[in-house]
Structure formats: C-alpha cells, structure tokens
C-alpha cells in the first residue's frame, strides 16, 4: 500500500494529524479544477456529481466505520458536526417518549434511579430553546425530571469541550465533564446526551464504544462519538453497536488532505427525528424550491448545511480510492503489530525511566498511536523532526507518534525508536550522538 502514497526518506509518524498524500490525487484534483470547473463550470453540479458528493463520499467512508449506506454525510468541520450532533441529540432526548430506540426510556434511567447533583457549569438561560418536543410538548425524562444535562469526555480534544459548552448554553443544559470510564456511574435520568471520543487524542487510549453506548442507552440518553482518531485506523462498528450519532475528520487516517471535510453519521432509525440546529438550504427537501419555510430532506442529506467545499471534498473522494480492497480488520492487525513493535524497541533502546508510556498496553485499550511522556518533550520532538522522525508534541509533556498502517513500515518503527533513544541520550549528555546504529541493542 505504501507505493500508493507520496513519501520520502522521512519516518512519518504524524498521520494522526495529517495523513500523507495519495499519489494519484494531484492529477485527479487538476482534472476537477481544469475540466470540471474550468470547462463545465456550472454544469458540473449535475454532470460531475458535485451536488450529491456529500452523500456519495459518506457512503464510501461508511464501510470503514461499520455503517450501512445512507447514514453518513460529508461536509463542514468536525467541530461544526459536533455541534449539529449534540444539539440534535438533546432535542431527541426531549421528545416525549424519546428513548434512543424510539421507545420510552427506562424510568429514572440512572443507576440510582434519581437525578445526580450538577457539578459542572450551569449554562444559564437557553437561547430561545423551548426544551420540549418540536410539537411543543414538554420535554423530559419519562418518569423523571427534565433531560437537562450533557456529559462530555473530560479528557477531550478541546474543540469538543468548547462546542459542548456552547450547545449546553443554547439548550439550557448543564455541562458535566466526566472521564469516559466514569460515564456509567454519572448517567442519570437527567442525562440528555453524552459526547465521547473513541480514541483519546493525547494518550491514544481506545474507549469501550459498545459498552459505553449501551450504558448511555440504558439511561435513556443519546451517545455522540467523535471518531477523529479511530476512523481509518480500526473497526468502529457504528451500526453493530447501535451508536446514535458520530462525527469524525478525514484528514488523519483517511488521508483526505489538509482541511478535508468531516463526516456526520446519524443512524437510520433516528434520521426522521434529527432536528438540525443548522438547517441550511442544502438540507432542505427541495433546495431549489427557494421556499421561506424549512422542510428537512429525508435521510443523510438532512445533516448538510450550505454549499459543500467541492475542491476539498473531491480530493477526499479521490484519496479514498486507496482503500479499495483493504479490510479495516487487516489495518487494525498491522496497527497493533506496529505499536507493539515500537514499544518493544523503545524498551530495548531508551534508558529505563527516561520516558513514561501513557498509552495503554492492552490491545483492546489502544488506538493507533503511542504517547510517551517526558519533561522536555517539546525540545525532544524538535530534535526528532530535525533527524527525520516526524511525530508531534502535545502540551504539556507528550511525544505523540501516530502509526498509519497503510504506509508505515516496521523498519520505520525501528529507526524511530533508535533515533528517539539517541536524542534522549543527547539531551542527557549534551552532545550530538546520532550516528547510524546508535542505540542498537547488543546482538
Ligand atoms: C478528537 C478530535 N476532535 C475534533 C478535532 C477538530 O476537528 P476540526 O478541526 O475538523 O473541527 C480534532 C483535531 O483537530 C480531534 O483530534
Ligand atoms: N487539524 C489540525 C490542523 O489544522 C493543524 C494541525 C493539527 C491538526 C490536528 O488535527 C490536530 C489533531 N486533531 C490532534 O489530535 O492533535
């Protein structure tokens, strides 16, 4: 698969920030610009399939995250999709009888059957949000009080936390940050929605999506998953595990390019109830009817907002061709082998105690990255990049190495660990020691 990408002698372990360029994309994008835009111009909305690109590309991503067709739409950024999904989830939770399966949720919902004390910030008055079902009926937990709390992953990538806080203010909810493992105990009859990351961006910890989703449902709430660090890296099983809503970016393991549009998944059973807080003309049932009244489209297009960013979108569509014939299970197998081997090499080469691994060793708790903590991580990463090993530094003290199974080789992994050991040794001794073979264990 590596031959399908543009790569050089660098050891590129940053595909979890920006995936490498698939080799055929520049020519494909040139055709989009020169012929589709330059020659066909406005006709391309129909003739080049521009108008339907968001759903079409969503269907291409679907098998990689375990979704049947018709449930994913591509567009906007992950941040914007988090907003759409979270507000829509709260609205669904407030529909009368609106349990996640369309059935009334268990009374009381939470493990103790009663509302938990709010510990997070109170959002204040909702911005005109009625807190009820679209028909004007009062919202609330069946058999309990109002669904007025959003739980958010306390360790989340910051944008999700910022957006969740705003979504909470707008819907009159309390926002409660909770570590993912503590979510089951924090759920109650007040919980409307829970926003979680599948893989933690800093530590690389993989959270238990099936059991957490089931716990959220048992409380009569809705689960929104951020798949930025798992889409294209490991099987997700969205349909299999009954996930309600999910979002993710396409510029990491899906290699869609800088600023490639994100995706939004709304499971089939919930699509008719998906009440978007950003009902733009592209999600109207009849976009060219130019009606003053908003009538939502059916299915995945309901998640659209405005005009799609066609150049980025079609670069993503082209880049997804590298996945033809690639089972995500095989990608996962190689990912685990790569991260296992990296950890093995680090143990062999790096002096004990110099770094602390914050990525779980158990396979079922590991994404496709390894995060090592050391006090001088920022300078160490700068030196690594100078030496041709590209990972990234995450504040305050984390060296983050992402392993994209499609193009990272075992030899790259060994070199990265060897150079890391040399740089760490150099930092200790204050001298340059990066000769070939440095840090190799005794045969
Ligand atoms: C987990 C996670 N969520 C959200 C984002 C932000 O996505 P976007 O910039 O597409 O809004 C990122 C990375 O940028 C991320 O790692
Ligand atoms: N989206 C990024 C960007 O525009 C510039 C630099 C990095 C990014 C990232 O994606 C960061 C990434 N989400 C992370 O996990 O840290």
From TrEMBL:
GO terms for molecular function: kynureninase activity; pyridoxal phosphate binding; transaminase activity. Pathway: Amino-acid degradation; L-kynurenine degradation; L-alanine and anthranilate from L-kynurenine: step 1/1; Cofactor biosynthesis; NAD(+) biosynthesis; quinolinate from L-kynurenine: step 2/3. Residues 95-150 are annotated as: Disordered. Gene3D superfamilies: Aspartate Aminotransferase, domain 1, Type I PLP-dependent aspartate aminotransferase-like (Major domain). One of its GO terms (biological process) is quinolinate biosynthetic process. It holds the Pfam family KYNU_C. It comes from the Bacteria. One of its GO terms (cellular component) is cytoplasm. Pyridoxal 5'-phosphate binds at residues 78-79, 157-160, 226, 229, 251, 281, 307. Keywords: Aminotransferase, Hydrolase, Pyridine nucleotide biosynthesis, Pyridoxal phosphate, Transferase. The modification N6-(pyridoxal phosphate)lysine is found at residue 252. Its EC number is 3.7.1.3. Its cofactor is pyridoxal 5'-phosphate. Residues 96-113, 121-145 have a biased composition (Gly residues). It catalyses: 3-hydroxy-L-kynurenine + H2O = 3-hydroxyanthranilate + L-alanine + H(+); L-kynurenine + H2O = anthranilate + L-alanine + H(+). Belongs to the kynureninase family. Catalyzes the cleavage of L-kynurenine (L-Kyn) and L-3-hydroxykynurenine (L-3OHKyn) into anthranilic acid (AA) and 3-hydroxyanthranilic acid (3-OHAA), respectively. Homodimer. This is Kynureninase. It comes from Streptomyces mexicanus.
């Amino acid at each position: 698969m590596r031959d399908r990408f543009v790569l050089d002698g660098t050891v590129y372990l940053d595909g979890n920030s920006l995936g490498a360029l698939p080799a055929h994309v520049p020519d494909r994008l040139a055709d989009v610009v020169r012929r589709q835009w330059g020659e066909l111009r406005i006709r391309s909305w129909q003739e080049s399939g521009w108008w339907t690109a968001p759903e079409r590309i969503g269907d291409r991503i679907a098998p990689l995250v375990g979704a049947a067709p018709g449930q994913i739409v591509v567009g906007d950024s992950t941040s914007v999709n988090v907003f759409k999904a979270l507000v829509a989830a709260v609205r669904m939770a407030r529909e009368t009888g609106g349990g996640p399966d369309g059935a009334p949720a268990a009374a009381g919902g939470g493990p103790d059957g009663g509302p938990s004390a709010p510990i997070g910030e109170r959002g204040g008055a909702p911005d005109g949000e009625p807190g009820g079902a679209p028909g004007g009926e009062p919202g609330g937990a069946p058999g309990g009080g109002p669904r007025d709390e959003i739980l958010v992953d306390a360790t989340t990538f910051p944008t999700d936390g910022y957006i969740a806080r705003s979504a909470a203010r707008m819907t009159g909810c309390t926002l409660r940050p909770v570590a993912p493992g503590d979510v089951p105990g924090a759920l109650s009859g007040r919980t409307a929605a829970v926003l979680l990351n599948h893989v933690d961006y800093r530590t690389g910890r993989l959270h238990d999506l099936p059991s957490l989703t089931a716990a959220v449902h048992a409380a009569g709430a809705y689960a929104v998953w951020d798949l930025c660090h798992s889409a294209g890296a490991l099987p997700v099983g969205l349909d299999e595990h009954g996930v309600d809503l999910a979002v993710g970016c396409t510029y990491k393991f899906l290699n869609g390019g800088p600023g490639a549009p994100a995706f939004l998944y709304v499971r089939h059973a919930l699509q008719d109830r998906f009440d978007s807080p950003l009902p733009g003309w592209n999600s109207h049932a009849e976009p060219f009817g130019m009606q003053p009244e908003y009538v939502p489209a059916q299915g995945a297009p309901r998640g659209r907002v405005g005009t799609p960013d066609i150049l980025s979108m079609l670069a993503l569509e082209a880049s997804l061709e590298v996945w033809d014939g690639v089972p995500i299970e095989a990608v996962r197998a190689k990912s685990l082998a790569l991260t296992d081997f990296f950890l093995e090499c680090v143990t062999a080469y790096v002096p004990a105690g110099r770094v602390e691994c914050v990525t779980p060793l158990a396979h079922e708790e590991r994404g496709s990255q390894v995060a090592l903590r050391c006090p001088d991580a920022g300078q160490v990463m700068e030196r690594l990049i100078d030496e041709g090993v590209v990972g990234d530094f995450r504040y305050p003290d984390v060296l983050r190495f992402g392993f994209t199974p499609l193009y990272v080789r075992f030899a790259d992994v060994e070199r990265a660990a060897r150079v890391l050991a040399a740089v760490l040794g150099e930092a200790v001794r204050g001298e340059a020691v990066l000769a070939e073979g440095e840090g190799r264990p005794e045969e």
